[in-house]
TrEMBL record, chains A, B:
One of its GO terms (molecular function) is 1,4-alpha-oligoglucan phosphorylase activity. This is 1,3-beta-galactosyl-N-acetylhexosamine phosphorylase. It comes from Actinomyces weissii. Residues 6-441 form the Lacto-N-biose phosphorylase-like N-terminal TIM barrel domain. SUPFAM superfamilies: Class I glutamine amidotransferase-like (SSF52317). The keyword Nucleus does not apply. The lineage of its organism: Bacteria, Bacillati, Actinomycetota, Actinomycetes, Actinomycetales. It is an enzyme of class 2 (transferase). Residues 672-722 form the Lacto-N-biose phosphorylase C-terminal domain. One of its GO terms (biological process) is carbohydrate metabolic process. Its EC number is 2.4.1.211. Keywords: Glycosyltransferase, Transferase. Residues 448-667 form the Lacto-N-biose phosphorylase central domain. InterPro entries: Class_I_gatase-like, Glyco_hydro_b, Ig-like_fold, Lact_bio_phlase-like_N, Lacto-N-biose_phosphorylase, LBP_C, LBP_M.
Length: 726, 726
C-alpha cells in the first residue's frame, strides 16, 4: 500500500479485473482510462474516483463515416519532383511515393486547388497547360520546358485516419485482428458532420454514465503525417497544418480574409511550412483562421460535456491542430484539463505551463505497447527511469497536477519490476506536491526570454519535428529549452515581431536566440531589418544579457553573417573570410565554464568554423580551430555564445552559469546552487526547505549552498532528498 | 658525381665558394641564383651554364625610393567595424588594428577615395556627414544612427614593402642586422617611376654582364598582405588586388570604362574580393584593367632584357598581381620562363601547364630559411620528401623543364643528409625527362572540366587562400584538384559564363563542381539562373558525367538547396526538411568505392547532413546519419556525389574510379591501373614503357594492369620504377 494516494491515472482494459484492482491500489491511482482499441471494464467506477474515456470526435463512428463518404478529411500534398527529360508532354502520377491506403486524390475543382509549378524557372503553369486523368491520378503537362523540374500541389482525401493507421500498423492488427476496421476520419466542416458530432456526443454521454472525464483525442484535425508507398512514415510534422485543409475551409478563408490561398501556400515547395521555416503571412493567417474555428467548435463540444455533468479533458496530440495551447483562442475552449505525453523536461513544461485550464496531467513513457513491452530486448524499466528523470526536473520547477501511463496494461503486468518502479515513481510524484505544499520553488530574479519567429505560440516547443523525437540536426538546439525547463528561471517565449513592436519586456534579464541559419528559430530574414539588431544592441548595452546558440541572428548582410556579431563577439566562417588571420584570446578559467571537466560538448555544433571577431572576445572553449563558447562585454551588458548546447547535466549547468553571468548576477552562484552538476536544488522560501535531486544513475555527493550556509549530501542513484532549513 | 646533369638551379651566396662548387657538382646544377638579401659570388659564372639574378623592379633601389616619397604603392583597407554606442559623433581611427610600420593613410581626395558605410542599414554616409583629422588618422561621423555599425573604406600608403617586411620579420633582421633598410615600394603608375624603372633596368644589365637570366621578383603589385598592430599577419590573399590600387589607376579606369569604382568595390564589406567570393562585374573589370596594364609594362622590361641578350624569367609570387598566367594578356609579355614555388601537385601543375613561355621551373620546398633549417626540431629531409612526393605526381603527368631550391645555401650545408636526399631527387627528376623522351604519358580519352566562377583564369588555383597553405575550411575541396593534378586526365577549368554562352566543350566527358555554398567555386548566385541547371541536366542526360563535391550547385530555390539535386540524387539538409523521413538505399559494393578499406574520409564534409532524394540514388558511403558518397543515373548519364574529398592516395583513386564510372568507361580500370592506391602508373605508348611510382613512405607491392597483361611489382618507400613492355 502506498503512503499516500491520488494524482495518478492508469490505463485499464477488460478481462483482468483482479490484476487491475491490485495495480490501482499499489499505484494509489484515483483515475482510470481506456486506450485506442481497449474498452473500460465494468469495475472501473468502483476502483477509483474518476473514470476517463477516450472520445474521438473525428473518427469515433465508422458506420457513420462509411455512410457519408463525402466527409473525408483532406490533406494538401506535393507530388514528387519530376524532371522533363526532353521535349513532349510530362506525365506526373501525383500519388507516386505516397501510401494509397492513406490517400486518394481529391478532384474537386482541380483548377482551383491544384497547382503545377516549374521549379526551375519558378513559374506557375496555368491550368490550361495541364490536365488530370481522374481514373489514374496522372496529371499531364502538355508542353513543359525541357530539363525543368515540375511539381504538383494537390488536395488529397484521407481514406485512413492517421493515428489509427499508425496504431494498426505498429501493433500488427492486420495479422492479429484482421476484422478490425481501417477507420476513416470525417471533417467537421463538411456536409452534416458538425450536426452529427454534437448529437453523437450528447448520445454517447447519455449512454456512458460511468464516464466522469471525457478525454477528447483530440478534436478535428490531425497533425501532418503521410506514409510512403511501402506503408512507412514518409513525412511527419507535429505542427503541420496540411491535414486541416478542405475546399470548404479555403473558400471560407477567402471570404473572410479577402485573398485566395494557393496550393503553394500549403505545400510550400515541399517544406510544408515546417516550424523550422520562417513563417509566411499566409501560413500565420491560416493558423489563426483554423485555430479560431476549432476553438469555437471545440467549445461547443465542451459545453455539451459540461451540460451532462462531466469534465472535458483534451489530449494534446493526434488531432490537436487548431488547439495550440499557447495560442490566443485556447482558453476560450473552456477545457477542464489537458493531458499530454512527456518525452522530456521541455514537453513536460509544455503541459504544466498551459494557461486556462484547471489542471494538467502528463502521460509518462513508456507507452504500454509491444515495441517496448517485449522479452526480446525491450527495457520498460530503463525507459520509465529515463522518462521520470527527464520530466522530474520540469515537475520540480512547475508541478503537474496529475500523472499517468497509457497503453495496454496487460502488457505491463508481465513485467513486475516495471510495476515496482512506477509504484515508487507515483509516490515520489505525490511527495513533491505534499512537501512543497503548493509553493513554487524560488526562481532567479529575472526572466529568460527565448527569441524566435514563433514567440509564445510555441512555448517550450522549439526545434521539434515529431513530438520529442531525437533529431540529429536539432538536438544541439533542443538542449537549450530542455535545460531551461528544469532550471530556476521564469521563461518567456518572445517573437521578433513583438520585440520590434513593443521592445523587450521589462522583466526579461537575458534573451536567448538559438538555432540554425535560415530557420524560424534563428530568425532568417527577420534580421534583414536592421532595426532588430539596433534595438537589441541598445538593450544589451544598457545592461542586459544575450545568449546566442549555433547561428543566432544569422543573415548574410553588410559584411557579417551573424547580425549581432558585435554583441556576441563572434561570427561564423563560411569560406568568405579565410583571408583574415585569427588570433583567439583563449581564456582558461571562467565562471561560465567552471564545471567543465572535458571540452565543452556542442553536439553538432554550428556546422562550421566559428571565430572571435577580435581580442576583446573571451574564448572559453576552442577545439580543432573553432570556437565553442565565448563571452563578450558589450556596453554595460554581456553576451555569451555557444556553438551548440545538447542537453546534459553539465551543459545545463553551464547554461545556468552563463545566464547568471550575462545578467551580471554571479552572486546567484552562491544562492541555492549545488557543487555537483548532476544534482539540482529547489528552494521553497515559504516552507524553508529545499529539495535536492540526483539526475544521474549513480550515487552523487554534492554540496548545496544557500543563505551563506552549506550542506554536504550524498544522494542515491536517481534519488532525491528534502532538507529542512532552520 | 651524378649520372646525368642539368635542369637544376641552386641558390648560392658569397663567402663559401668551395662548398658551392662541390654542391653544384653533386646536384648536377646548371644554373645558380641569389635570393632576397644575398649576392652572387664571383665564381658563379664558371660553375654553371646560367646565372640567374633576382631583380626587384618595384623596390630594388631604396635610395631612389626615399628620394621620391610621392611614389609609394597604395592599398585599399577597411577600418574595423565600429558600433555607435548611442547618439553623438562616432570617431573611427581608420588604422586601428593595422601595422603602422606597414601603412599610413593616404589623404589624396578623401571624399573621392574614402567611403563610410552604415553596415546596419546598408547606406553610404555622404562625405558631408564625416570629416578626417589628417594629423591623427581619425575619421568622425558627425551624426551616426545610434546602435548602427560603421566602417570606413580608405586608401593607405604602403611604407614597407610586403615581402621584404615578411622576410625582415621572419628572419629577425631587426636584431641580427639592424642597419638593414626597411624597403619602400614604388608604384609604376606614379610620377616618374616608369621612366626610372626602364632606365634602371638598362643600367643594371650593363653593370651585371655575369647575369644570364633576369629573375623578375616579380613586377609591380604585390598580392594582398596586411599585418596587424602587433606586427603579425592580419590578412593574406594570394589573389588579392587590394594592393594594386592608386588614385592614378582608379582615375584611368574611370576614363576607360566609363564608370567610377568605389572604395566598396575593393574592400567589399571586408571580404576584399576573396577568390571564394562570387566575383562582381567591377572586380572582374579591375582584374582585366590591371592585367592589361601590367602586361604592357612588363613586356617593355622583358624587351629591354632581351635587347641586352639576356633571358627574362618571372617568379610567380610576391608582386605577381596583374600577371595571372592563365589570363588573356600573359603570353603577350614574352617571357622566356616562369619559376614558381611548389607546395603540392596542384601548384606544380599551375606552373608546368603555363602557356606562352619556353620553359618552366619549380622551386621545391623547403626554402632554406631558419624556420626549417635549425637543429631544434626542424626536419629539412622530411619536408624535402613531402614536397617531392606531392610534386612528383604532377611532374610525371606534365614534366616541368627545370627544378631548383631557394634560400640561404649556407644553412642547407649544415644538414648533409638533406644534401644527400636532394641529390637523389635531382637525379630522379632528370630521369623522368630522359626516359619519357619528351613524350607525355597517356591520358583518359575524355577531358575533365572543373566548373566554377573563375574558369581558366584560376587553372589549378581553386580554393587557395595563401599559396598552398592548408586551411581547415578548404582542404576538403583542395583535395579534388590535388588529386586531378596527378591523375591521367586532361583537365580544363571552365566558368559558368562560358558554359552558359558556348555549352560544355565537346572534349569534356565529366564535369566537376566542388565547393561550399555561396562561394565562387560552388557558384552561389550563378545558379539563380535556371538556364544553367537546364543546360547541365540536358548535357548529363545525353550521356555525360557530373561529379559534385560538398555543396555543388547550391542555391536555395524552388524547394531544393542543390539546384542539380535531381542529377546528383542528393540534397543537403538545412533543418528545413526534417519532417521528411529518409530511407537511404545503401549499396555495399560499388566500383567507385572498391578501394576503400575504411569509411570514406570526407574531411570537413559538407558541414551538415546530406541525404539521398530517393531510393534510386545509390548511397555508397553513409556514416552517422549522413551520406558521404552517392552515385546516380540521370538519363543516359551518370552523377557522383562526394561530401568532401581531402587529398589522400585512396581518395584520389576513388575520384579516378568515379570519373571513369561517371563517363561510363569502367573498362579503363583495366588499362594502366594499379591495384594499390599508394602507387600510380604512367604509360608512354610511343616508347612502350611505363613508370610506376610509390607515393607512400612504405614499401608497396602492387599489380599493374594494361593491354590485357599484368605485372607484379614491389617498390621501395617513395620509390619509382620504369618497366619496358615488349
Amino acid at each position: 500500500m502506498p503512503r499516500t494516494t491520488g494524482r495518478v491515472t492508469m490505463p485499464i482494459q477488460e478481462g483482468i479485473d483482479e490484476q487491475i484492482r491490485e495495480l490501482a491500489q499499489a499505484l494509489g491511482a484515483d483515475a482510470v482510462r481506456n486506450s485506442d482499441g481497449t474498452w473500460l471494464p465494468e469495475i472501473a467506477s468502483e476502483l477509483v474516483d474518476k473514470v476517463y474515456s477516450t472520445y474521438f470526435p473525428a473518427r469515433g463512428d465508422q458506420e457513420w463515416a462509411l455512410a457519408h463518404p463525402d466527409t473525408l478529411v483532406n490533406q494538401y500534398l506535393m507530388s514528387a519532383r519530376v524532371t522533363a527529360m526532353g521535349p513532349g508532354p510530362l506525365r506526373i502520377d501525383v500519388l507516386e511515393g505516397y501510401f494509397r491506403e492513406q490517400f486518394r486524390p481529391c478532384y474537386e475543382r482541380v483548377e482551383r486547388f491544384w497547382e503545377v509549378i516549374d521549379r526551375t524557372s519558378g513559374e506557375v503553369v496555368p491550368p490550361s497547360g495541364w490536365s488530370v486523368n481522374q481514373a489514374t491520378g496522372v496529371l499531364t503537362v502538355a508542353e513543359p520546358a525541357p530539363w525543368h523540374e515540375y511539381t504538383v500541389g494537390f488536395l488529397a482525401e484521407q481514406v485512413w485516419d492517421t493515428t489509427q493507421m499508425y496504431n494498426y500498423i505498429t501493433n500488427g492488427w492486420g495479422e492479429t485482428d484482421p476484422t478490425r476496421v481501417k477507420e476513416r476520419p470525417y471533417d467537421v466542416r463538411k456536409n452534416g458532420v458538425w450536426e452529427y458530432m454534437r448529437e453523437a456526443l450528447g448520445r454517447w454521454l447519455e449512454q456512458h454514465p460511468e464516464v466522469d472525464v471525457v478525454r477528447f483525442t483530440t478534436f478535428f484535425y490531425h497533425f501532418t503525417i503521410a506514409f510512403n508507398s511501402e506503408g512507412k512514415e514518409k513525412m511527419v510534422d507535429w505542427f503541420g497544418y496540411s491535414a486541416s485543409v478542405s475546399p470548404e475551409a479555403i473558400d471560407a478563408f477567402e471570404a473572410e480574409y479577402g485573398y485566395r490561398l494557393r496550393a503553394e501556400d500549403f505545400v510550400d515547395a515541399g517544406y510544408y511550412n515546417s516550424p523550422f521555416r520562417c513563417p509566411t503571412r499566409q501560413f500565420r493567417d491560416w493558423i489563426d483562421f483554423q485555430s479560431r474555428f476549432v476553438a469555437q467548435r471545440a467549445k461547443e463540444l465542451v459545453d455539451i460535456t459540461h451540460a451532462a455533468g462531466r469534465e472535458a479533458m483534451m489530449f494534446l496530440g493526434d488531432n490537436w491542430i487548431g488547439t495550440e495551447p499557447y495560442g490566443p483562442y485556447f482558453p476560450s475552449i473552456g477545457l477542464d484539463a489537458v493531458v499530454g505525453s512527456a518525452g522530456s523536461a521541455a514537453t513536460t513544461r509544455l503541459i504544466s505551463d498551459i494557461p486556462g485550464v484547471r489542471y494538467t496531467e502528463v502521460r509518462f513513457l513508456p507507452y504500454f505497447f509491444p515495441d517496448v513491452f517485449n522479452h526480446d530486448g525491450g527495457d520498460p524499466v530503463g525507459e520509465a527511469n529515463e522518462s521520470w528523470l527527464s520530466s522530474r526536473r520540469a515537475i520540480v520547477r512547475r508541478p503537474l497536477d496529475r500523472m499517468g501511463y497509457g497503453g495496454y496494461v496487460s502488457l505491463a503486468l508481465e513485467f513486475p519490476e516495471f510495476i515496482e518502479r512506477i509504484t515508487a515513481i507515483c509516490q515520489e510524484f505525490r511527495d513533491i506536491h505534499e512537501l512543497s505544499g503548493g509553493e513554487l520553488p524560488q526562481d532567479a530574479p529575472f526572466t529568460v526570454g527565448v527569441l524566435n519567429a514563433w514567440g509564445a505560440l510555441r512555448t517550450w516547443q522549439t526545434h521539434m519535428v515529431a513530438h520529442a523525437l531525437w533529431y540529429k540536426a536539432a538536438y544541439s538546439y533542443v538542449g537549450v529549452v530542455e535545460a531551461l525547463a528544469g532550471l530556476p528561471f521564469k521563461v518567456r517565449f518572445l517573437s521578433f515581431e513583438e520585440v520590434l513592436r513593443d521592445g523587450v519586456p521589462p522583466e526579461v534579464g537575458v534573451l536567448v536566440n538559438a538555432g540554425a541559419a535560415g530557420t524560424a528559430f534563428s530568425g532568417g530574414d527577420a534580421w534583414a531589418d536592421g532595426r532588430l539588431a539596433e534595438l537589441l544592441r541598445q538593450w544589451v548595452a544598457e545592461g542586459h544579457g544575450f545568449i546566442g546558440v549555433g547561428e543566432p541572428s544569422a543573415y548574410e548582410q553588410g559584411g557579417t553573417f551573424l547580425q549581432l556579431s558585435d554583441v556576441l563577439g563572434v561570427d561564423r566562417e563560411r569560406q568568405l573570410t579565410l583571408s583574415t588571420d585569427r588570433y583567439p584570446n583563449v581564456v582558461d578559467e571562467h565562471v561560465i565554464t567552471a564545471d567543465l571537466r572535458a571540452p565543452f560538448d556542442d553536439g553538432e555544433g554550428a556546422g562550421g568554423d566559428v571565430y572571435a571577431t577580435g581580442p576583446r572576445t573571451q574564448v572559453l572553449s576552442y577545439v580543432d580551430g573553432t570556437l565553442r563558447v565565448a563571452a563578450n562585454a558589450f556596453g554595460r551588458g554581456r553576451a555569451v555564445y555557444f556553438s551548440g548546447l545538447p542537453y546534459s547535466a553539465v551543459n545545463s549547468r553551464t547554461l545556468q552559469r552563463a545566464l547568471y553571468w550575462a545578467a551580471r548576477r554571479e552572486d546567484l552562484l552562491e544562492q541555492w546552487f549545488t557543487s555537483n552538476p548532476d544534482t539540482e536544488v529547489a528552494w521553497y522560501p515559504g516552507h524553508r526547505r529545499f529539495l535536492v535531486t540526483n539526475n544521474s544513475y549513480s550515487q552523487a555527493a554534492t554540496t548545496v549552498r544557500g543563505e551563506g550556509r552549506s550542506w554536504e549530501l550524498v544522494l542515491e542513484p536517481m534519488g532525491s532528498q528534502w532538507v529542512e532549513v532552520d
